[in-house]
Amino acid sequence: MIRIALAGLLCLLTALPLRAGILADGTRVIYPAQRRETTLMLANTNRYPVIVQSWVDDGEGNPDLARAPFVVLPAVFRLAPGERQAIRIIYNQDPLPPDRESVFWLNLYEIPPETRGQAETPRVTLAMNTQLKLFWRPAGLTAALDKAVDKLRFRLVREGTGWAIECENPTPLNVSFTSLQLAGGAGAAPDMDMMTRAFSTRRYALSGPPGGARQIRFSWLDEHGAAKTGTAAVGRVIPSSTP
Fold first, then answer.
1. Shared domain check, 151 and 216
2. What are the residue boundaries of the Pili assembly chaperone N-terminal domain, all occurrences included (predicted)?
3. Distance between CA 112 and CA 46 in Å, rounded?
4. Alpha carbon distance 69, 104 (integer Å)
5. Which of 99 and 18 is assigned the larger pLDDT?
6. Pairing state of beta strands 153-159 and 162-169?
7. Do 35 and 88 belong together in one domain?
8. Is the pLDDT of residue 12 over 50?
9. pLDDT digit string, tens, across residues 40-59
10. For the chain, how many helices (H) and strands (E)?
11. Tell me, what CATH number does 159's domain have?
């Protein structure tokens, strides 16, 4: 899963056309604990140079708040149009849970240049932050993600005046969805990050009533970020613990 955020700075210049121009050679990073470091290749597909700042955090998207146990090198660099750059991600050995996968976010913050001759005209300068999930896997964790998906359990839960799909993940791996749809019924409302963490339970609000559905169709992301589909039975309706 990739998240893209825009940071706008109002200044007295003219706006440049902007899109997410920094592309990585993967949509996620798997970091086995036994490795000293892992690398990711980036490419600037813009028609202009950019300055890129890179760091790992818990999803805040703010380098000043980053507390994740990873260092990214180089932390700041320039990429010309069409240029490629490998970044190194290094685990600093701060303790992480040894029995499950830990999740962090790799940030790629790109800042476009200011062009000459436009200093006297108004513009909005936009910087774009692309976030990729980073999964740290402890040594000895050999569970396969597709097997973890097979162990997921789903229930329908009443929440106030609405309904939700409750997903229970009893495995040491994190499972990311792109969609959850009841067979013949409503689907989960869109969410920027539809992930059920290892050894946890998460609820996904439905966009409408569930009807009589007792099966769910879902799309999940494999270790390479490719979408896979699956189906599962939906358990009994249980009362919500939410007041």
1. yes
2. 22-141
3. 9
4. 9
5. 99
6. antiparallel
7. yes
8. no
9. 999 999 999 999 999 999 98
10. 1, 17
11. 2.60.40.10
